[in-house]
Write a structure and sequence with these properties.
100 residues; alpha+beta; GMP Synthetase, Chain A, domain 3; three-stranded mixed sheet; 50% helix
Length: 100
């Protein structure tokens, strides 16, 4: 009954994918679409905090960047993102200033 012992690396390799939240692939797809839609530089000042009921909630690090992103055409951003998010319904994007 003695079998080959598995290394810690093998055990973690099997375990970690099972522990990931189910929405992690969607989160990653949302992040990639968000970066492409607003630009990687601006996206670097943001963090997706939630995606609920079709609404993407984004925190922005600085008031100046919040103003800049708010001034962008939200419809164009949503259209650009929707084109990359097959099977994900994106109804709205809500921006807020991140807390320290």
């Amino acid at each position: 009954m003695a079998g080959k012992m598995k290394s810690m690396s093998e055990i973690l390799g099997e375990l970690v994918p099972k522990l990931r939240p189910k929405g992690s692939k969607t989160q990653q797809r949302l992040w990639e679409a968000w970066k492409d839609a607003i630009g990687r530089e601006k996206a670097g000042y943001t963090k997706i905090s939630a995606f609920r009921k079709g609404t993407l909630h984004v925190e922005v690090e600085s008031p100046a960047m919040l103003q800049e992103i708010t001034g962008m055409n939200k419809t164009r951003i949503k259209e650009a993102m929707t084109g990359k998010l097959k099977g994900v319904f994106l109804a709205d994007i809500r921006l807020k200033l991140a807390k320290d």
